Amino acid sequence: MKHPLVAFEYCPICGSKQFEINGERSRHCHDCKFTYYANASASTAAIITNSKGEILLTTRAFEPAKGKLDLPGGFVDINETAEEAIIRELKEELNIDINNPTYLFSLPNEYNFSGITVHTLDMFFKVKVDDNIQIKTDDDVASAQFYDLKDVNIENIGLNSIKKVINKLKFEIK
Description:
Radius of gyration: 19 Å
Strand content: 35-45%
Oligomer: single chain
């Protein structure tokens, strides 16, 4: 996969070809002095559990990692809080309404999209749901199912940060 800075050949401000890589995170224009930083994109994921302590995992409908297990969630939109993003994403992907997601922790991740590596900061939220919740998958989710953590094969998880979370949760319940 390509680093995101490879996609930029010309300065987006003045159009100069003198837009050169300036370290690992930026490009700098020698003509107009503009510096573009490739910062991490904000993303959210929900650790949804039921009364049995099972965790809800989704199956990805599209690349990257099509057909692999994942946690529901997605990118934070401009002018949106992480809490608003996870509430919106759960509505879009699972057609469920939640009110009070609890922030847990964050992990860096790499998300390969259209040949470019998008560096993300994934923020994880805890969400408890009633056992009788009606889930109807949509958006980029093919299916959703509750799993006992001990039955989850880590090799069936598609994204690195999600693998780390599942391993962490498995360790915590031992």
